[in-house]
User: Fold this.
Amino acid sequence: MSGAGARLLIRAGRVVTGTGAVLEGASVLVEGERIAAVGRSADIGTPDGVRAVDAPGQTLIPGLIDAHVHLAYSGIPHKRAFRAELAELSYPAVALRAAGYARNSLRHGFTALRDMHAPGGAIIDLRRAIDAGHVEGPRIKACGRGLSVTGGHMDQPGWADHAEFRDLTRPCDGPVAFRQGVREEIKRGADFIKLNTCVSFWKKPGVWCRQEMTNEEIAAACDEAHMQGYTVAAHTSGDEGLANTIIHGVDCVEHAHFCDERIIELMVKHGTYYVPTLLVNERNFDFSPQEQGVSPGAWAWLNAAREAKWKSLTMARKAGVRICSGTDAGFMLEHGPVNWKELALLVQGGLTPLEAITAATATNADLLGLEAGRVAPGRLADLVLVDGDPTVDIAVLGEVGRLRVFKGGKDVV
Ligand SMILES: [Zn+2]
Assistant:
């Protein structure tokens, strides 16, 4: 273990900075938990007292970040099994189990995660335990509970009265209640605010999205969060509800399957971050509707979203929208071994491998407000040494045996 003043020198075949540049034959000098210098190996040399790591055939990239996970959930695919599992777990049990999931994500190269809601705000406690050094794990930004209208997304009926898990979300109704909800989550220790503004819909043919929060509710929640210096993310589906989400102040839209040119223009105009969560949607098609316990209407929606999301991604990339990489791990996806697949799908959707890495590093770090995500002096030394070249073959990121992970300049064992 290296102490606060320890110096580490990594000489790599190439360094991917996280902002689109690739430096051939470069070295990175780390002092304590931060990067002190980046440059040609010949220029940096071997400063006194460094621990040198020689990796001539390898690629050094910033630690990967998953911008959309749910550490409270196991990834179990069937809806009924998902509910049964949650009903058995107390909040401390959720946090303890999540610690294992978080550590597994770290071992697979993900040095930071953004947790998009957890029952009881349990992941805020996990973040505190990791920050205090009680357990090893990635850096976490957590929203606590999401906020939704009564009976809305994540406040759906069907839980028995005796079931312990009734606060997957905090129901609020009206602008005043949403403002109070924002204040409560911030008091609890949230890093950002999550809203559920617009959702999937399949009761009218050809209409796939429905706005759930009113414009006044969205505006009040965003105003309160921004006034206190917090950003706001929203679960969205698309169409008019998505446009209103952006117009009324949300900083980052999740999923957003159904976009059109106007919505993309709004994202550019407002500087909105976009987390398309391609992987969770694709994952549905590894199972039959019966295996998942979804209705024929929901299945039709999943197919429509599958078609729409690629078009939305193409438009967003062309327009220069800030595209982030996030999986929705925890829902039908296990934590750790599959998070990298979102980068592969971004490449399938038209991004270059280097652009996909930028999405999962520098852009995600900006979204999270993290001083990581870039190989640059002053940044936190969250790094992954990859045996191979992910700018040529993104799939090397999926082989854990090829990864050597550093968090804050220390080896992750
Ligand atoms: Zn989610």
Observations:
- DSSP finds 13 helices and 20 strands in the chain.
- The chain has a mean pLDDT of 94.
- Residues 68, 70, 116, 328 surround zinc ion (CB under 6 Å).
- The domain at 64-339 is CATH 3.20.20.140 (TIM Barrel).
